[in-house]
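Database export, one record per block. Field names are fixed; values are copied verbatim from the stored entry.
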Amino acid sequence: MSEARGVQEAVEVARLLQPHRVAVELIGYADPQSRPLLNEAVAEGVLEWRDFMPNDEALKRLDGALAGLSLLHDEPNYRHSMPTKIVEYMAHGIPVITTPSPRAVELVERYQCGLVVPWQDPQAVARAVLQLRDNPFERIGTGGRGYAAARANHHWPNSARRFVTQLEAWAGVKS
């Protein structure tokens, strides 16, 4: 977690959601600049932060979540990269709340699997979380569409043979 990945916004979202009894849990390594902010928020009881955790353990914590946040800032590197966190949320049937990086918007709009909020706008994120909390049909439908899309379009067994064939071609290996 870092400033460019929206850590400050995530902490503010947790503060805004606390009176609504919506818990925020952040998982992952935080850079040295973000650690004091996260430790302070944990000490205040605003959120839970779990530092680095192996991917298989972190993914287990997604089950039952209300939404998955991807609050990347408008940085050149994020404009063209596939937001894998969003695909992981989709694969777990969790609605996505994301900032409007082009690839994130493409996923959310194509599959109708979440909500797009403005850059660096914790209040909009909190409203989106509460919207999903208060509309179970929307939440379940959004999560279900994301799951179906991830299964059909981003599921390893569906791509494995093509991927291995490409690697073999680059390596000059004949199948």
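Remark 1: The mean pLDDT is 94.
Remark 2: Strands lie at 25-27, 48-50, 68-70, 96-98, 114-116.
End of record.
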